[in-house]
Amino acid sequence: MNKKTGKHNYVAGTVGSYGAYLADGNEYRGDYELSELEYLAFHLPRLRQILAEKPDLIALETQPKLDEPLAVLNWLKENASDYPVYVSFTLKDATHISDGTTLEQAVSAVDKFEQVFAIGINCISPDLVAPALKEIGKYTFKPLVVYPNLGASYDPKIKQWREFKEKFDFNKLTKKWYQEGARLIGCCCTTGPTEIKQMIV
Description:
The chain is 36% helix and 20% strand. The chain is an alpha/beta fold. The protein has a single domain (12-199), classed as Homocysteine-binding-like domain (TIM Barrel), CATH 3.20.20.330.
């Protein structure tokens, strides 16, 4: 507990996707195929370093595919089962993760792991959050997690976010997302102090 605020603070060891490593926007498409062993060969050096630091939880975030977090979850189940984990996907639309897998299939698969305590979405447009939370809530009773971007799209050629003019009221959105079952709520790429302040309700 933070002695100044009286609030509990937790440190998550975050594990992004192989798609993010490719640095071509693949974390929003999932256009790659690796075996479970290949996923583990990529992730385990960093994951072992994270676990050595003893974080409070593990965040498998910005996942555009299902087989990748499943590979890591299977390893964690056998080697670090005492760590709570949340899984958050990127989206193609409100009912599919980025590679086209249905949210029903993705959520149902990760929901089976006991150490997964929350499931959700991140780095997506705020427009997609409410309908996606409704869809996710059909397939799990676990708390939902969401931290969107500002609705911009990432241009992998210039390595920048394209300008997005629509404005969002994160104060109102946060309340709506909470009603839809979100309990871990935050901000992702292109957001900043303004949005974070709006979310503190």
